[in-house]
Write a structure and sequence with these properties.
With 179 residues, the protein is α+β, with helices and mostly antiparallel strands. The chain has 4 helices and 7 strands; from the N terminus they run ββαβββββααα. It has one domain. A 5-stranded mixed sheet has the order 2-3-4-5-6. The longest helix has 12 residues. The structure holds zinc ion (ZN). The site of zinc ion has 8 residues, from loops.
C-alpha cells in the first residue's frame, strides 16, 4: 500500500512475475499540480493491478471518486462522479517498435529495459479529464436559485435597439464629404 498525492508510481524493476495490486489517491492538489483549471477539488481512489510476465507488464487501472468542477450555468460547485477502467500495456523496448504492438483496446507504453518504476500520474490525470462530460451543469432545477434568477433577468430582458443602423453615421460622413 503506497499513498501519494503528487505522483502515482508503479514499481517495475524487482517486481516478481504475477499479479500485484497498488492503491493510490489523487486529490485536488494532484490536479492542480498538472495545471487543471477545470478541476477545483477531487477525491479519487486509484487501484492499479499490475500483471507482470517475462516480456511485458499489463496494468489495469481503476479510478473511482468524485471531482468538483464549476457549474457552467450557475458557477456553483458541481460534483461529478468518476468511474474509469483502463488497460495499459507496458512493453520493453524502444519507441520505434511501438507501431508493431497489437494491444486491442489497451493503451501501449514503451519503457526502457532499465526502467525502475512507471509514473502513471499523467495517465490518471488524462483519464479523469477525458471522463468529464463536455457540458458540466447541475441537473435542471438544481442550480443556485439566485444565479438562475439573475440569468433569467439578463437574457429575458429588453433587447437594445441602439445600434439598429450601424452605417447611418458613416453615410452622413460620406454625404458631407461629397458636398
Ligand atoms: Zn448550476
Amino acid at each position: 500500500m503506497d499513498k501519494v498525492t503528487d505522483s502515482i508510481k508503479v514499481p517495475l524493476r524487482g517486481l516478481p512475475n504475477g499479479s500485484h495490486t497498488f492503491e493510490y489517491q489523487a486529490d485536488g492538489e494532484f490536479f492542480q499540480t498538472f495545471g487543471s483549471e477545470i478541476v477545483q477539488d477531487a477525491i479519487c481512489a486509484i487501484s492499479v493491478v499490475v500483471t507482470k510476465s517475462r516480456d511485458f507488464v499489463k496494468l489495469e487501472c481503476t479510478i473511482t471518486g468524485t471531482v468538483t468542477v464549476e457549474c457552467d450555468r450557475c458557477l456553483d460547485d458541481l460534483q461529478i462522479p468518476i468511474e474509469v477502467v483502463r488497460g495499459l500495456l507496458v512493453k520493453y523496448g524502444s519507441e520505434e517498435e511501438e507501431a508493431d504492438v497489437s494491444s486491442g483496446d489497451d493503451d501501449v507504453m514503451m519503457v526502457e529495459d532499465t526502467a525502475v518504476q512507471l509514473d502513471l500520474s499523467q495517465f490518471v490525470y488524462d483519464y479523469v479529464c477525458l471522463a468529464l462530460p463536455l457540458q458540466m451543469v447541475h441537473p435542471e432545477g438544481e442550480c443556485n436559485p439566485l444565479m438562475t434568477a439573475y440569468l433569467a433577468k439578463e437574457t429575458g430582458g429588453e433587447v437594445s435597439v441602439e445600434c439598429n443602423m450601424p452605417f447611418s453615421g458613416l453615410k452622413d460622413l460620406l454625404d458631407n464629404k461629397n458636398n
